[in-house]
Amino acid sequence: MASSVRAGPRLRRAVRDGELAALPAALRDELELALAEEGALVPFGLLRRLHAALREAGSPLHLHELLEGCEIHLPEVPVPPRNPELVARLERIKAKLAHEEYQRMTRNITGQEMNGPLAEFGRQVRSVKAVVITIFNFIVTVVAAFACTYLGSQYVFAETAARVLSAVIVASVVGLAELYVMVRTLEGDLGKL
Q1: Residue pLDDT, tens place only, 144-171
Q2: What is the dihedral of CA 106, 111, 117, 119, to 10 degrees?
Q3: pTM
């Protein structure tokens, strides 16, 4: 925390030229002693006493005018030495994280080559399986939307034709939304190839 100010040229000139002659001699001597060296530091306590003395003397000088060009002195904060146990623990954690990241990057890499006829057949089976699951999901979603709307509309419509019509409309909207999602997903998968 700051506790002193590095003296600026305006404060030095005021002390040197006698502008502070109306102040008590003890305060002037203390201020001259503080400003004796180049780059000297003036403590905040001395500045508070200077401010009070300027007010009591009715001086036309104000403290903020005297502090023009001064800099607040911030002492160096001592950095405590690091605990060796903590450093060793951090190194172990960093090594563990690096190992986990390496394992994550290399988890789908095997030492075997996948270039045989069975490898191609496996890729095709996975592709067909994904398509079949997608189509099954589409059908189940549309049928479920139809059934829920048909059963739920019995409280709104008394006639069967109106119930069927509303169920077909809702199932069509759900089917179109599902198709849109499937096309976007397929488009994203094709973009990755």
Answers
A1: 999 999 999 988 888 999 999 999 999 9
A2: -30
A3: 0.41
